[in-house]
Amino acid sequence: MYTTSEYSGSAGNLAQITLDSDNVFGDDGGELQLATVTGDVAAGYRVALTVAVDTTTTPGTSGAPAGPGN
To answer: What is the pTM of this model?
Structure first.
């Protein structure tokens, strides 16, 4: 995909970013956001991601944001 002319600058731009410098994963280098992938094409793949849950957060409710006409 990045070899097509529409993305001619993307590969160079992406090469300058690391998980440590990215504004999404920078706080932990992606350690808590990236799954572990094992397996192969023949046997199938298995993906595991441990997710932390903050049980001290007060439960609440949410709804859809107000849109036009609401």
So the answer is: 0.42
